[in-house]
Amino acid sequence: MIEQKQQLENAVNEALTFAQQLGVNQAEVALGKATGISVNTRLGEVENIEFNHDGAMGISVYVNQCKGSASTADLSLEAIHSSVKAAVDIAKFTSKDPFSGLLDPEFLEKNPLDLDLYHPCNYTTEEFLAVAKECEEIALSSDSRIVNSDGAAFNSHSSLKVYGNTNGFLHSYATSRHSLSCVLIAKQQQEMQRNYSYTSGRDVNDLLSAKWVAEDAAKRTLDRLGATKIKTQESAVIFAPEVATGLFGHLVGAISGMSLYKKSSFLLDSLGTKIFPEWMQISEHPHIMKGLASAPYDQEGCKTIQRNIVESGVLQTYLLPGYASRKMKMESTGHAGGIHNWHVKTGDLDLPGLFKEMGTGLFVTELMGQGVNLVSGDYSRGASGFWIENGVIVCPVHEITIAGNLKEMFMGIEAIGNDIDPRSSLKTGSILINKMKIAGQ
């Protein structure tokens, strides 16, 4: 991958140079190459081995505020020139957009940091399969109630991203990502339940062991046995860390540029206003070494910086790529392509302490469906988890729906536990919300 770095940078430079020779003042080129392997085993047998080696160059030109785009997977000189010409020709037939164009040079990252994001794995195919088989074997033998498996999967992928534009930006960096997962099925009498676990990281040496994944998957699956429905009611709700990240994901969507300039967000005109309790703090850390969402610059070459998203419950910033920032007459925030390692400030309570704080209510460990309206903030999702009484788990529950409104849910957060899930790039503990509607039987 690293050996291709100069070759790919030369290809991007060639496209930019040729665009300028055609009289184009503003052009940008993004080029990515990805390689990897995914293996799946099921019940001790090899189910799938998939290799990937792909990539493409995307070219955008801006001619008199008209945008034209083209792409090519062929990086020969002839193909690059042909694609640039195609982008220029397309621009002749598109409408003018005064907000299109490149970022101003002042926002571009001049000296990108090396964030140690590239750690290729040199395992053989047999070694990948051996780890997946080991994980599944340990899980299947852990308890007689584990009767079946949807398999174990080991994935390892690397990529090299190059971005350049005619404002003098041309840089690249490589990344890697590896993961191991296992999905199990447990049976008790006529009841069957399914659950999973996983581990993920930039460096394969940082992954949790196959034994840990197997045992965690088994525990999560077995804990679901005996699940029942609960009556329809209103109660406090705790979101486990792996589903709590989704709540903040809805925050990301609501404060992102496209939602805002299209006026399709329940947090429209909320900058500088209180949207969480006063103690809430959310910060972004794009330069964490080996971070799963670290990036020295965004997809437009904009600097990424550490910043507070929410401070003392008050929204401090929107998430604005270049186009959205111009539409809204604001500055780009370096979020073209997404967010970068969010940290939610946690409290002192562990999960049992959070149960005691809640007393009686629902502990949600899985969510289903897409019932979230970002325009109104209305929230309705299928859920499963555990019923808590007097601070203690009473029974697993399933086939329920939880509902509320995200504005009220955000303001109704009473505590955040210190049980942070280290596998996520959005670090948060379990979240206690004071009241939600629960539809059961």
TrEMBL record:
GO terms for biological process: proteolysis. Residues 27-91 form the Metalloprotease TldD/E N-terminal domain. This is Microcin-processing peptidase 1. Belongs to the peptidase U62 family. Residues 233-440 form the Metalloprotease TldD/E C-terminal domain. One of its GO terms (molecular function) is metallopeptidase activity. Pfam families: PmbA_TldD_1st (PF01523), PmbA_TldD_2nd (PF19290), PmbA_TldD_3rd (PF19289). It comes from the Bacteria. GO terms for cellular component: cytosol. NCBIfam families: PRK11040.1 (NF008268). Residues 119-225 form the Metalloprotease TldD/E central domain.
